[in-house]
DNA sequence: CTCCGTTATATTGTCCGACAATTATGTGCG
DNA sequence: CGCACATAATTGTCGGACAATATAACGGAG
């Protein structure tokens, strides 16, 4: 009897059977749409990007790991393929599956990014992400000013209305904020810039999270956003570039101010 | 007998057995390090990004597809997981696996990018990639000017030596070119910018490919590169930004000039 | 006739057990 | 001392069964 399955009270008392009929708080049932392999990939991915598994570290063998998780080896292997496809692990026969060096991680992959920001983000990584925004978004705004269609302007305008109506204290307002930046990247009409929407969105959302949590009465973001919109509407690339850079700088200052206050004051 | 396997002369006469002992020109044996699932993912990925399979199109069922390819269903499924992880396909029970809309593709994923550029690249996508370079690299150069260590300078210097020694007509020279840009992104000390190395590298390599193929006596790229290097060495962000933008602009002009010549002249 | 719940069904999802392929490591021979 | 070779450990592939899921067809109630 090499592999036990579905026995209610077997040798692993603290590990509830994943497929038991009452798995309420089990970590692997959060995303209902995620299949088993997806859940495993997500859980393991989070452990990797959070540093719980160190780069270069050798993971357990497939039989041992799948056995410990009470899943079939096939499902576990599919999870490995997902993680390998995102650059988090590398598998080789006879040697095993090891965690890749962080340089090889696909940090801009939407899943990897969401796994990273599942918990309080690393400070340096967050500032790196803002640096990226500061480089990407002004350039994208300039392109958007040249290429935007009326449809894009309308999307951006609606997003601005939503931001003004709900404010960043409301989920709808935060969504509108992200939609504004997403619409702007779409207006740049560049497929590669559009794929960066997830990254920009993550940075945007963490800005507002920090602000709302520690400093709810902070600066009104509407003027900056409107300036960007006006410049794009006026088809003025230079002005759009400048306005967007100003916006990102102010947003970054918001988060760093909050961070500083958390360290010194509290 | 629902599934036939390994019968030499069955109902699929034109499909040679993948695991036969003499698979010389078979498309699936190119990358020796790629496993079966990796080869399938690569082949199918290329078919998708090249438009052979249209977005929204429903792929064959797993049993039918794996049967047609003469591989096990498990291997085929692992390939699907890889493609799904890169945003190329989406699977749902009862409905099947369909090709995702291009907006969802992870274009900056190294594999996806290499699959795209497996064949002559789409003109618009290539220009989009240059737009990205034009936005990313100047900003990265500015950061690199502030943060570069001596080790980075040495890497860049060695890369410049290699470019001068071998020229872009030689493989070693092209490699040195990529190493220069890679080292500069590393010097920016930003994890997200570093992940864009692949994308920049693809654009760089296609520049030189076009130039060498259609216009071997073109402009010498060394002066532009040296200017960037000097500015980074001097810790002058503004100068580095300017020099790098100039470099990218000239490189982009090279490719467009070649394209134009190909269309008009020839 | 329309709407809604139910059932049928096709497809992916998961499981299991066996064997093949690959390669790091040790071993023996020259 | 170095190189060919055997060994072993791990991933890779296979095949066949059953479960879960979501679309679509169906039928009954209003």
Describe the structure.
Chain A has 266 residues and is mainly alpha-helical. In chain A, helix 6 runs antiparallel to helix 10. In chain A, 62% of the residues lie in helices and 3% in strands. Chain A binds chain B through residues 37, 41, 74, 77-78, 81-82, 84-87, 102-103, 105-111, 125, 128-129, 131-132, 134-136, 139-140, 143, 190-196, 199, and chain B through 37, 41, 74, 77-78, 81-82, 84-87, 102-103, 105-111, 125, 128-129, 131-132, 134-136, 139-140, 143, 190-196, 199. The structure holds a DNA duplex (30 and 30 nucleotides).
Q: Quick summary of this structure?
A:
In chain A, a hairpin with a 3-residue loop joins strand 1 (89-92) and strand 2. In chain A, 39% of the residues are buried.
Give the ordered list of helices and strands of chain A: HHHEEHHHHHHHH
Main beta sheet strand tally, sense and closure of chain A: 2 strands, antiparallel
**Gap between N and C termini of chain A:** 57 Å
Cα-atom radius of gyration of chain A? 22 Å
List the total number of helices of chain A.
Answer: 11
Structural class of chain A: mainly alpha
**Total strand segments of chain A:** 2
Share of residues in strands of chain A: under 5%
Strand order of the largest sheet of chain A: 1-2
So what's the overall shape of chain A?
A: elongated
The oligomeric status of these chains comes to homodimer
Low-confidence stretches of chain A: 1-26
| Average pLDDT for all residues of chain A | 86
The largest chain-to-chain contact, stated as pair and per-chain residue counts, equals:
A-B, 39 and 39 residues
Helix content of chain A: 55-70%
